[in-house]
Structures are given as C-alpha cells and as structure tokens.
Amino acid sequence: MISKDTRYNVGGRFFIHAPAHKGIRSKKTGDFVSQRLARIQPPYGLAKPWECNLYYFWWEFMKRNPEVEYYFNQRNGRGLRGRLKTIWNDWGNIFDYETDEFWNWWRQKVSTGETRGEFLFAEPLVREMKLVKSSTKSKDTLIIQVPMEVRDKHLMRMFRKLLDENASQIDKVRSQSQARYKIHNPVRLPSLYHALKVLDAKKANPDAKLYELPDIAKIPQNILIEGLTIEQYVKEGVDVAPYKKELRRRKTALAKRYLSAATNYYNNAISGYFPHNPKEKPPTEGDLDS
C-alpha cells in the first residue's frame, strides 16, 4: 500500500493516495509506463489499471450499500434527503455506469469544471508561499522570517533545516486530508477485492452455505492441514472426515470475516470516510482487512 504521506499531483490538485489511472503499458515489456502504477499491488492478477486504487473500491462498495441501491438504482433519486441527497448531488447516479465504465465516471466533468475524481477526492489547491506580516500561530502554517541579506544558497539550507526541525508537525498536517470525501486507515486492495467478491457471491447465491462462499468467490485459502491436502490424506488411506470438518470451519470463519468487513465498508461508503470511519476502533495488526 502507498505510504500515507505520498502525494500524487494532477495539475494543480493532488491526491494523498494514488488516484485512478487509465494506464499505459510499454509495448516491449507490458509493464505500466507510470511508476506510481508499477509499484502498487493490484487487487487481483488481471486488474484493470483504474481498479488499482482505493477510490475505485469506495465506488464499488457505495453501490453495495442497500440504501444507495434502493434510492439511486430503483428510485432514480426520488425521495432523497439528508446525507444520501448530498451523495447524489456529489457522486451523481453511479448506477448509470457499469463496473467497466468507472473510468468514465471518474473523468466526467462536473459543474465546477473539475473531473468527478478531483471534485470528490482531491485536496484543495496548493497554497502559495508568501510574505506573512502577522504573528498569529497556525497549526498548518509555518511563519518564517527571511533575512534578505543572506544569499539564496544559504537561505535554501536554512529553509531545509527548518523543515527538518518541524518534520513531525509537517508530516501530521500532510497526512490529514481536506478532500470532500476522505480515505481513513487504508486497507490493502486485495483485501477489499476479496470482501467485495464474497459479498457478491452471497447475493448471487443466497442459499449457499457460508463455507461454500470462499470457493464460489475464488478466494485464496490455506487448504493444508498439518502440511498436507485432503487428497494426499486420501491417497494414504487416512480417515479424512475430521480434516474436512476442519476445512469447513476455516472456510466458514473466513466467509464471516469477509462479510462483516464488507458490511462495514459499504456502511462507511456513505459516511464521508472510507474504508474505515474515524469513530471506529482502528484495525489491529493481523486483522483480515488490516
């Protein structure tokens, strides 16, 4: 996952987290020309370039929110109020776009002249450096006194020294998004993808057992028991009933965790924060979606 203080420029706007890209590949190697895409772990093997970002999954889980699906898809915006009306105005009717059309939604121009992606997720325009006569303190601004008799070369050294001495405060400010919709506590893209697939598998197969869902969704799993597979135990003539029971237990637990995570994600999708809400307890190391 991209580090929280990495910023991605798009003209005069920037994103704290990697934005969506259409992606251009080298004809010789097949690798992405963009270095920022090349260093991102894709959610799955054949993922489209524009799927390799957190904002794409925000869009997908927004579609899975039952209220959004009802008012946006079934009622086409009729009867909206409160938070959902704001989302309708900001996001448009996302059900007008298929999954393969996410890039078109992201690049659509809105009334402000920005693209939809910039309008929703980009940080405000970068402020210019200027002379400040006020001595008022600010948490997100360093007020610097510049000795004009000092040569430029030495001024740059002084400036770098000041930045180094205030690095902690600077890093904190840079990591705090001012976008309309904010990424909070990022989740690995494969984890988001797997949660989405299990959720969709459950919807498409409502009568399926929980232990069946990971296989239906084709989620990677640990199928080894004490270092061997069920098939290997069968070849050795071992009673595999206890092992099959253990695998079912694992698959059931895995499905429950992914479904729980997916529910949190689609609920948070309408909160203004994704994938986690600041009011939630932060995920701990070792959690499924950490």
Keywords:
disordered N terminus, 290 residues, two-stranded antiparallel sheet, globular, 3 domains, mainly alpha, 42% helix
Secondary-structure element pattern, one letter each: EEHHHHHHHHEHHHHE
Terminus-to-terminus distance:
11 Å
Please report the number of helical segments: 12
Class based on secondary structure composition and strand pairing: mainly alpha
Shape: globular
Number of domains: 3
The unreliable regions are 1-5
* Extended strand count: 4
Mean pLDDT: 86
Strand order of the largest sheet: 1-2
How would you describe this structure to a colleague?
The protein has helices spanning about 35-40, 55-65, 65-75, 80-90, 100-105, 115-120, 150-165, 165-175, 190-205, 215, 230-235, 240-270, and strands spanning about 10, 15, 180-185, 275. The chain has about 290 residues and is mainly alpha-helical. The chain has three domains: about 10-125, no CATH class; about 125-175, no CATH class; about 185-275, no CATH class. The strands form two sheets. The chain has a two-stranded antiparallel ribbon. A hairpin with a 2-residue loop joins strand 1 and strand 2. The longest helix is centred in the last third of the chain and has 28 residues, at about 240-270. The model is unreliable at about 1-5 (pLDDT under 50).
